[in-house]
Protein backbone atom coordinates (compact mmCIF):
# COMPACT_ATOMS: atom_id res chain seq x y z
CA UNK A 1 0.00 0.00 0.00
CA UNK A 2 1.33 3.48 -0.88
CA UNK A 3 1.81 5.48 2.37
CA UNK A 4 0.32 8.70 1.02
CA UNK A 5 -2.86 6.83 0.07
CA UNK A 6 -3.24 5.64 3.65
CA UNK A 7 -2.67 9.21 4.87
CA UNK A 8 -5.21 10.54 2.36
CA UNK A 9 -7.86 8.02 3.37
CA UNK A 10 -7.47 8.85 7.06
CA UNK A 11 -7.40 12.59 6.26
CA UNK A 12 -10.74 12.16 4.48
CA UNK A 13 -12.23 10.34 7.46
CA UNK A 14 -12.22 6.83 6.00
CA UNK A 15 -11.79 3.82 8.28
CA UNK A 16 -8.50 2.04 7.64
CA UNK A 17 -8.42 -1.74 7.70
CA UNK A 18 -5.90 -3.76 9.72
CA UNK A 19 -3.75 -4.51 6.67
CA UNK A 20 -3.36 -0.81 5.82
CA UNK A 21 -2.42 0.08 9.38
CA UNK A 22 0.00 -2.84 9.64
CA UNK A 23 1.63 -1.84 6.35
CA UNK A 24 2.07 1.77 7.45
CA UNK A 25 3.56 0.86 10.86
CA UNK A 26 5.90 -1.72 9.31
CA UNK A 27 7.19 0.97 6.93
CA UNK A 28 7.58 3.38 9.85
CA UNK A 29 9.58 0.87 11.90
CA UNK A 30 11.79 0.04 8.93
CA UNK A 31 12.63 3.70 8.36
CA UNK A 32 10.89 3.87 4.97
CA UNK A 33 8.68 6.85 5.88
CA UNK A 34 9.70 10.49 6.06
CA UNK A 35 9.01 12.55 9.16
CA UNK A 36 6.57 14.53 7.02
CA UNK A 37 4.57 11.40 6.25
CA UNK A 38 4.57 10.30 9.90
CA UNK A 39 3.50 13.77 11.03
CA UNK A 40 0.75 13.92 8.40
CA UNK A 41 -0.60 10.56 9.54
CA UNK A 42 -0.54 11.63 13.20
CA UNK A 43 -2.31 14.90 12.37
CA UNK A 44 -4.94 13.08 10.31
CA UNK A 45 -5.63 10.78 13.28
CA UNK A 46 -5.73 13.79 15.62
CA UNK A 47 -8.42 15.47 13.51
CA UNK A 48 -10.42 12.46 12.33
CA UNK A 49 -9.95 10.04 15.22
CA UNK A 50 -10.04 6.26 14.92
CA UNK A 51 -12.64 3.58 15.44
CA UNK A 52 -12.09 1.00 18.14
CA UNK A 53 -11.09 -1.58 15.51
CA UNK A 54 -8.53 0.85 14.05
CA UNK A 55 -6.99 1.55 17.46
CA UNK A 56 -6.73 -2.18 18.18
CA UNK A 57 -5.03 -2.72 14.81
CA UNK A 58 -2.64 0.20 15.42
CA UNK A 59 -1.76 -1.07 18.89
CA UNK A 60 -1.10 -4.61 17.68
CA UNK A 61 0.98 -3.39 14.74
CA UNK A 62 3.14 -1.26 17.02
CA UNK A 63 3.53 -4.11 19.52
CA UNK A 64 4.62 -6.40 16.67
CA UNK A 65 7.22 -3.89 15.39
CA UNK A 66 9.84 -5.38 17.75
CA UNK A 67 10.40 -8.23 20.19
CA UNK A 68 7.66 -9.77 22.32
CA UNK A 69 8.64 -11.11 25.72
CA UNK A 70 7.79 -14.73 26.51
CA UNK A 71 7.05 -16.13 29.98
CA UNK A 72 6.07 -19.73 29.17
CA UNK A 73 8.32 -21.15 31.92
CA UNK A 74 6.66 -19.09 34.66
CA UNK A 75 3.66 -20.78 36.27
CA UNK A 76 2.17 -17.62 37.83
CA UNK A 77 -0.13 -15.08 36.19
CA UNK A 78 1.80 -12.34 34.36
CA UNK A 79 0.42 -8.96 35.43
CA UNK A 80 1.34 -5.29 35.41
CA UNK A 81 0.05 -1.78 36.15
CA UNK A 82 0.51 1.49 34.29
CA UNK A 83 -0.05 5.07 35.47
CA UNK A 84 -0.65 8.10 33.26
CA UNK A 85 1.58 10.05 35.65
CA UNK A 86 1.36 12.37 38.61
CA UNK A 87 3.23 14.11 41.43
CA UNK A 88 4.34 11.99 44.38
CA UNK A 89 3.06 8.93 42.51
CA UNK A 90 5.42 6.16 43.62
CA UNK A 91 2.72 3.46 43.65
CA UNK A 92 4.65 1.13 41.32
CA UNK A 93 7.58 0.84 43.71
CA UNK A 94 5.41 -0.76 46.40
CA UNK A 95 2.73 -2.34 44.25
CA UNK A 96 5.04 -4.60 42.24
CA UNK A 97 6.54 -6.37 45.29
CA UNK A 98 3.16 -6.59 47.04
CA UNK A 99 1.59 -8.20 43.96
CA UNK A 100 4.57 -10.55 43.59
CA UNK A 101 4.36 -11.51 47.26
CA UNK A 102 0.72 -12.48 46.62
CA UNK A 103 1.56 -14.88 43.78
CA UNK A 104 1.82 -12.76 40.61
CA UNK A 105 4.78 -12.36 38.28
CA UNK A 106 5.24 -8.65 37.54
CA UNK A 107 7.53 -7.64 34.65
CA UNK A 108 7.06 -3.88 35.06
CA UNK A 109 8.53 -1.74 32.30
CA UNK A 110 8.46 1.85 33.49
CA UNK A 111 9.48 5.28 32.26
CA UNK A 112 11.29 8.44 33.26
CA UNK A 113 9.71 11.69 34.33
CA UNK A 114 7.51 13.34 31.72
CA UNK A 115 6.89 17.06 32.03
CA UNK A 116 6.03 17.92 35.63
CA UNK A 117 5.44 14.28 36.63
CA UNK A 118 8.04 12.09 38.30
CA UNK A 119 9.43 8.93 36.73
CA UNK A 120 9.75 5.52 38.36
CA UNK A 121 13.13 4.92 36.71
CA UNK A 122 14.54 8.20 38.02
CA UNK A 123 13.51 7.20 41.53
CA UNK A 124 15.13 3.78 41.19
CA UNK A 125 18.34 5.36 39.92
CA UNK A 126 18.75 6.99 43.32
CA UNK A 127 19.73 3.47 44.49
CA UNK A 128 23.46 2.91 43.85
CA UNK A 129 24.12 0.08 41.40
CA UNK A 130 20.48 -0.55 40.41
CA UNK A 131 20.36 -1.56 36.73
CA UNK A 132 17.34 -0.12 34.97
CA UNK A 133 18.33 -1.69 31.63
CA UNK A 134 19.43 -5.28 32.35
CA UNK A 135 19.80 -7.69 29.49
CA UNK A 136 16.84 -9.89 28.58
CA UNK A 137 18.19 -12.96 30.37
CA UNK A 138 18.68 -11.13 33.68
CA UNK A 139 15.26 -9.47 33.41
CA UNK A 140 13.66 -12.88 32.90
CA UNK A 141 15.64 -14.40 35.78
CA UNK A 142 14.63 -11.66 38.22
CA UNK A 143 10.94 -11.96 37.33
CA UNK A 144 11.04 -15.76 37.53
CA UNK A 145 13.05 -16.08 40.74
CA UNK A 146 12.27 -12.80 42.47
CA UNK A 147 8.66 -12.30 41.44
CA UNK A 148 8.98 -8.79 40.00
CA UNK A 149 11.40 -6.54 38.18
CA UNK A 150 10.98 -2.83 37.48
CA UNK A 151 13.10 -1.76 34.53
CA UNK A 152 13.15 0.64 31.57
CA UNK A 153 11.99 0.02 28.03
CA UNK A 154 14.57 -1.47 25.70
CA UNK A 155 14.94 -0.37 22.08
CA UNK A 156 13.64 -3.72 20.88
CA UNK A 157 10.20 -3.38 22.50
CA UNK A 158 7.66 -1.58 20.29
CA UNK A 159 10.30 0.49 18.46
CA UNK A 160 7.65 1.96 16.15
CA UNK A 161 6.20 3.73 19.16
CA UNK A 162 9.49 5.51 19.82
CA UNK A 163 9.69 6.97 16.33
CA UNK A 164 6.02 7.88 16.16
CA UNK A 165 6.12 9.54 19.59
CA UNK A 166 9.18 11.63 18.66
CA UNK A 167 7.27 13.07 15.71
CA UNK A 168 4.07 13.55 17.73
CA UNK A 169 6.07 15.49 20.31
CA UNK A 170 7.01 18.17 17.74
CA UNK A 171 3.77 18.22 15.75
CA UNK A 172 1.27 18.98 18.56
CA UNK A 173 -0.36 15.55 18.27
CA UNK A 174 0.60 14.07 21.65
CA UNK A 175 -2.91 14.56 23.06
CA UNK A 176 -4.71 12.25 20.65
CA UNK A 177 -6.55 9.53 22.56
CA UNK A 178 -6.11 6.90 19.79
CA UNK A 179 -2.36 7.63 19.66
CA UNK A 180 -2.01 7.76 23.47
CA UNK A 181 -3.84 4.44 23.71
CA UNK A 182 -1.67 2.72 21.12
CA UNK A 183 1.52 4.15 22.60
CA UNK A 184 0.80 2.91 26.13
CA UNK A 185 -0.64 -0.45 25.23
CA UNK A 186 1.81 -1.45 22.48
CA UNK A 187 4.61 -1.59 25.05
CA UNK A 188 2.43 -3.52 27.50
CA UNK A 189 1.40 -6.05 24.85
CA UNK A 190 5.03 -6.51 23.83
CA UNK A 191 5.82 -7.29 27.47
CA UNK A 192 3.70 -10.45 27.22
CA UNK A 193 1.12 -9.53 29.85
CA UNK A 194 -1.97 -11.56 30.65
CA UNK A 195 -3.62 -8.89 32.83
CA UNK A 196 -3.19 -5.15 33.19
CA UNK A 197 -4.57 -2.52 35.56
CA UNK A 198 -4.39 1.14 34.56
CA UNK A 199 -4.17 4.19 36.79
CA UNK A 200 -5.70 7.12 34.92
CA UNK A 201 -5.03 10.30 36.87
CA UNK A 202 -7.40 13.28 36.88
CA UNK A 203 -6.94 16.70 38.43
CA UNK A 204 -4.68 19.75 38.37
CA UNK A 205 -1.56 17.61 38.62
CA UNK A 206 -2.56 15.16 35.86
CA UNK A 207 -2.30 15.34 32.08
CA UNK A 208 -6.09 14.87 32.05
CA UNK A 209 -7.46 17.66 34.22
CA UNK A 210 -11.08 17.00 33.26
CA UNK A 211 -13.03 13.99 34.57
CA UNK A 212 -14.78 13.40 31.23
CA UNK A 213 -11.42 13.38 29.42
CA UNK A 214 -10.00 10.92 31.92
CA UNK A 215 -12.99 8.60 31.55
CA UNK A 216 -12.75 8.76 27.76
CA UNK A 217 -9.07 7.81 27.87
CA UNK A 218 -9.69 5.07 30.46
CA UNK A 219 -12.47 3.53 28.38
CA UNK A 220 -10.31 3.63 25.24
CA UNK A 221 -7.41 1.94 27.01
CA UNK A 222 -9.58 -0.73 28.63
CA UNK A 223 -11.59 -1.56 25.50
CA UNK A 224 -8.53 -1.70 23.24
CA UNK A 225 -6.45 -3.77 25.66
CA UNK A 226 -9.26 -6.25 26.14
CA UNK A 227 -9.77 -6.28 22.38
CA UNK A 228 -6.10 -7.17 21.99
CA UNK A 229 -6.42 -10.10 24.39
CA UNK A 230 -5.18 -8.66 27.70
CA UNK A 231 -7.64 -8.67 30.63
CA UNK A 232 -7.66 -5.01 31.61
CA UNK A 233 -9.42 -2.57 33.93
CA UNK A 234 -8.74 1.01 34.98
CA UNK A 235 -9.09 3.02 38.14
CA UNK A 236 -9.51 6.77 37.88
CA UNK A 237 -7.60 8.38 40.74
CA UNK A 238 -7.37 11.91 42.10
CA UNK A 239 -4.34 14.08 41.34
CA UNK A 240 -5.47 17.36 42.87
CA UNK A 241 -2.69 16.99 45.43
CA UNK A 242 0.53 14.96 45.59
CA UNK A 243 -0.28 11.32 46.21
CA UNK A 244 2.59 10.61 48.60
CA UNK A 245 3.90 13.04 51.22
CA UNK A 246 7.13 13.29 49.22
CA UNK A 247 7.98 14.52 45.73
CA UNK A 248 11.43 13.92 44.29
CA UNK A 249 13.59 10.87 43.74
CA UNK A 250 15.56 9.74 46.80
CA UNK A 251 12.87 11.25 49.04
CA UNK A 252 10.21 9.14 47.29
CA UNK A 253 12.43 6.09 47.57
CA UNK A 254 12.59 6.68 51.33
CA UNK A 255 8.80 7.00 51.26
CA UNK A 256 8.64 3.60 49.53
CA UNK A 257 10.80 1.97 52.19
CA UNK A 258 8.68 3.53 54.93
CA UNK A 259 5.55 2.22 53.22
CA UNK A 260 6.92 -1.31 52.97
CA UNK A 261 7.82 -1.11 56.66
CA UNK A 262 4.20 -0.28 57.51
CA UNK A 263 4.77 3.38 58.39
CA UNK A 264 2.30 4.86 55.87
CA UNK A 265 -0.92 3.22 57.09
CA UNK A 266 -4.11 5.24 56.71
CA UNK A 267 -2.81 7.48 53.92
CA UNK A 268 -4.24 8.23 50.49
CA UNK A 269 -1.17 6.45 49.12
CA UNK A 270 -2.04 3.26 51.00
CA UNK A 271 -5.62 3.42 49.71
CA UNK A 272 -4.42 3.59 46.11
CA UNK A 273 -1.70 0.93 46.43
CA UNK A 274 -4.04 -1.58 48.05
CA UNK A 275 -6.84 -0.82 45.57
CA UNK A 276 -4.53 -1.60 42.67
CA UNK A 277 -3.13 -4.69 44.36
CA UNK A 278 -6.68 -5.95 44.90
CA UNK A 279 -7.66 -5.26 41.29
CA UNK A 280 -4.56 -7.08 40.00
CA UNK A 281 -5.26 -10.11 42.19
CA UNK A 282 -8.93 -10.34 41.18
CA UNK A 283 -8.18 -9.82 37.49
CA UNK A 284 -5.53 -12.55 37.61
CA UNK A 285 -7.74 -15.04 39.44
CA UNK A 286 -5.64 -15.10 42.61
CA UNK A 287 -8.55 -13.78 44.68
CA UNK A 288 -12.29 -14.17 44.24
CA UNK A 289 -13.35 -10.72 45.46
CA UNK A 290 -11.89 -7.26 46.10
CA UNK A 291 -12.23 -7.69 49.87
CA UNK A 292 -10.39 -11.02 49.83
CA UNK A 293 -7.74 -9.54 47.55
CA UNK A 294 -7.18 -6.48 49.74
CA UNK A 295 -6.84 -8.73 52.78
CA UNK A 296 -4.22 -10.81 50.97
CA UNK A 297 -2.31 -7.66 49.97
CA UNK A 298 -2.43 -6.27 53.52
CA UNK A 299 -1.06 -9.55 54.85
CA UNK A 300 1.82 -9.47 52.34
CA UNK A 301 2.62 -5.98 53.54
CA UNK A 302 2.23 -6.48 57.31
CA UNK A 303 4.15 -9.77 57.32
CA UNK A 304 7.18 -8.19 55.71
CA UNK A 305 6.96 -10.50 52.69
CA UNK A 306 6.52 -7.60 50.25
CA UNK A 307 9.59 -5.87 51.69
CA UNK A 308 11.57 -9.09 51.22
CA UNK A 309 10.50 -9.26 47.56
CA UNK A 310 11.52 -5.63 47.02
CA UNK A 311 14.91 -6.21 48.68
CA UNK A 312 15.51 -9.29 46.53
CA UNK A 313 14.64 -7.39 43.34
CA UNK A 314 17.03 -4.56 44.22
CA UNK A 315 19.83 -6.97 45.03
CA UNK A 316 19.34 -9.09 41.89
CA UNK A 317 19.42 -5.96 39.74
CA UNK A 318 22.73 -4.79 41.15
CA UNK A 319 21.65 -2.70 44.13
CA UNK A 320 22.69 -3.12 47.77
CA UNK A 321 21.34 -6.14 49.59
CA UNK A 322 20.73 -4.20 52.81
CA UNK A 323 18.95 -1.13 51.41
CA UNK A 324 15.87 -1.63 53.59
CA UNK A 325 17.93 -2.05 56.77
CA UNK A 326 20.37 0.80 56.02
CA UNK A 327 18.75 3.37 53.69
CA UNK A 328 20.93 6.23 55.00
CA UNK A 329 24.02 4.37 53.83
CA UNK A 330 22.84 4.43 50.21
CA UNK A 331 20.20 7.12 49.60
CA UNK A 332 22.01 10.45 49.39
CA UNK A 333 20.61 13.40 51.31
CA UNK A 334 20.60 16.98 50.06
CA UNK A 335 22.99 19.27 51.98
CA UNK A 336 20.24 21.77 52.82
CA UNK A 337 16.88 20.91 54.40
CA UNK A 338 14.52 23.80 55.06
CA UNK A 339 10.99 23.81 56.55
CA UNK A 340 8.22 25.52 54.57
CA UNK A 341 6.05 27.53 57.00
CA UNK A 342 2.31 27.98 56.51
CA UNK A 343 1.58 31.53 55.38
CA UNK A 344 -1.42 31.85 57.72
CA UNK A 345 -3.60 29.83 60.06
CA UNK A 346 -6.49 27.85 58.61
CA UNK A 347 -7.29 24.76 56.57
CA UNK A 348 -5.11 23.48 53.74
CA UNK A 349 -7.86 23.67 51.13
CA UNK A 350 -6.20 23.30 47.72
CA UNK A 351 -2.85 23.22 45.98
CA UNK A 352 -1.34 23.66 42.54
CA UNK A 353 -0.11 20.09 42.14
CA UNK A 354 1.46 20.73 38.75
CA UNK A 355 3.29 23.68 40.26
CA UNK A 356 4.71 21.44 42.98
CA UNK A 357 6.01 19.08 40.30
CA UNK A 358 7.58 22.00 38.44
CA UNK A 359 9.21 23.15 41.70
CA UNK A 360 10.92 19.75 41.96
CA UNK A 361 12.30 20.30 38.46
CA UNK A 362 13.48 23.80 39.46
CA UNK A 363 15.40 22.20 42.34
CA UNK A 364 17.16 19.93 39.83
CA UNK A 365 15.03 16.85 40.50
CA UNK A 366 13.67 16.64 36.95
CA UNK A 367 14.64 17.48 33.38
CA UNK A 368 14.01 20.53 31.22
CA UNK A 369 15.84 18.84 28.35
CA UNK A 370 16.30 15.09 27.70
CA UNK A 371 20.06 15.29 28.29
CA UNK A 372 19.78 17.01 31.69
CA UNK A 373 21.29 15.23 34.70
CA UNK A 374 19.06 14.81 37.71
CA UNK A 375 20.01 15.62 41.29
CA UNK A 376 18.37 12.65 43.01
CA UNK A 377 18.78 14.22 46.46
CA UNK A 378 16.39 17.14 46.03
CA UNK A 379 12.64 17.49 46.41
CA UNK A 380 10.04 17.84 49.14
CA UNK A 381 9.13 15.59 52.06
CA UNK A 382 6.59 15.86 54.85
CA UNK A 383 3.98 17.36 52.51
CA UNK A 384 0.83 17.74 54.58
CA UNK A 385 -2.37 16.43 52.96
CA UNK A 386 -5.24 18.75 52.11
CA UNK A 387 -7.95 18.97 54.74
CA UNK A 388 -5.47 19.52 57.59
CA UNK A 389 -5.70 22.57 59.86
CA UNK A 390 -2.42 24.43 60.32
CA UNK A 391 -1.19 27.40 62.32
CA UNK A 392 0.77 30.26 60.80
CA UNK A 393 4.44 29.35 60.70
CA UNK A 394 3.82 25.62 61.16
CA UNK A 395 5.79 23.51 58.65
CA UNK A 396 3.70 22.18 55.77
CA UNK A 397 6.68 20.49 54.10
CA UNK A 398 10.46 20.16 54.14
CA UNK A 399 12.58 21.29 51.18
CA UNK A 400 15.63 19.23 50.23
CA UNK A 401 17.99 21.42 48.16
CA UNK A 402 21.54 21.60 46.88
CA UNK A 403 22.19 25.05 48.46
CA UNK A 404 20.59 27.73 50.61
CA UNK A 405 19.50 29.91 47.70
CA UNK A 406 17.69 27.03 45.98
CA UNK A 407 16.05 26.07 49.28
CA UNK A 408 14.78 29.64 49.80
CA UNK A 409 13.31 29.80 46.29
CA UNK A 410 11.67 26.39 46.57
CA UNK A 411 10.19 27.13 50.00
CA UNK A 412 8.65 30.37 48.74
CA UNK A 413 7.32 28.66 45.62
CA UNK A 414 5.82 25.76 47.54
CA UNK A 415 4.08 28.02 50.05
CA UNK A 416 2.55 29.94 47.14
CA UNK A 417 1.22 26.68 45.65
CA UNK A 418 -1.11 26.11 48.65
CA UNK A 419 -4.39 27.87 49.43
CA UNK A 420 -5.34 28.15 53.11
CA UNK A 421 -8.95 28.98 54.02
CA UNK A 422 -10.98 29.64 57.14
CA UNK A 423 -13.49 26.91 56.29
CA UNK A 424 -12.75 23.19 56.15
CA UNK A 425 -12.73 22.08 52.50
CA UNK A 426 -14.68 19.25 50.89
CA UNK A 427 -12.15 16.97 49.23
CA UNK A 428 -12.57 14.65 46.28
CA UNK A 429 -12.05 10.92 47.03
CA UNK A 430 -8.72 9.48 45.95
CA UNK A 431 -10.42 6.65 44.04
CA UNK A 432 -12.79 8.39 41.62
CA UNK A 433 -14.05 5.43 39.62
CA UNK A 434 -13.51 1.99 38.07
CA UNK A 435 -13.69 1.32 34.33
Short description, anyone?
The protein has 435 residues and is an alpha/beta fold. It has helices spanning 3-11, 18-29, 35-48, 52-63, 91-101, 120-124, 136-146, 159-169, 177-190, 211-227, 250-260, 268-283, 290-302, 305-316, 327-330, 353-365, 404-416; strands at 79-83, 106-110, 148-152, 195-202, 231-238, 247-248, 336-341, 346-351, 379-381, 389-390, 395-401, 418-421, 431-434.
Please provide a written account of the structure.
The protein has 435 residues and is of the alpha/beta class. 46% of the residues lie in helices and 15% in strands. The chain is built from 17 helices and 13 strands. The protein has a four-stranded mixed sheet with strand order 1-4-5-13, sandwiched between helices. A four-stranded antiparallel sheet has the order 6-9-11-7, sandwiched between helices. Strands 10-8-12 form a three-stranded antiparallel sheet. Helix 10 links the parallel strand 4 and strand 5. Helix 1 packs parallel to helix 3 and helix 2 crosses helix 8. It is globular and about 65 Å long. It catalyses: thymidine + phosphate = 2-deoxy-alpha-D-ribose 1-phosphate + thymine. Keywords: Glycosyltransferase, Transferase. Belongs to the thymidine/pyrimidine-nucleoside phosphorylase family. This is Thymidine phosphorylase. Its EC number is 2.4.2.4.
Amino acid sequence: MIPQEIIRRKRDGDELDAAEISSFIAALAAGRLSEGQIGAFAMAVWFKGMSRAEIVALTLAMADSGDRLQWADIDRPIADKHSTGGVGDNVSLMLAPIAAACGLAVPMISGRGLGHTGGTLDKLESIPGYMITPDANLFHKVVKEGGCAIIGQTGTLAPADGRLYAVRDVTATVDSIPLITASILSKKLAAGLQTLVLDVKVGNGAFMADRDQAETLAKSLVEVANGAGVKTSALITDMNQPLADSAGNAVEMRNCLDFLAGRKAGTRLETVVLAFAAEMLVKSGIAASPDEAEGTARQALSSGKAAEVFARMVSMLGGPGDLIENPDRYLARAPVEKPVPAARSGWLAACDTRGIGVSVIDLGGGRRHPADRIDHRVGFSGLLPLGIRVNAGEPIALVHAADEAAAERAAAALAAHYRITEDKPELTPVIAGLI
